[in-house]
Write a structure and sequence with these properties.
The chain contains two helices and no strands. It is an all-alpha fold and about 50 residues long. The protein has one domain (about 1-45). Helix 1 runs antiparallel to helix 2. The longest helix is centred in the C-terminal third of the chain and has 27 residues, at about 25-50. The protein is elongated, with a radius of gyration of 13 Å. The mean pLDDT is about 85.
Amino acid sequence: MGMVVTLFLAVATMVIVYAWLGQGGPVSGLILFGILLLGVIIKRASSASSSS
């Protein structure tokens, strides 16, 4: 469930950066993948700490 929330946050941020700030597709894509990567890191860190 956490990854779905991260995906929607990443897509929303990408659309805001693309439309409101006027940045192009590559910049928006980098922001999308950066937020997704951050979500994965948080999910892995929380699962690693709960299993120990």
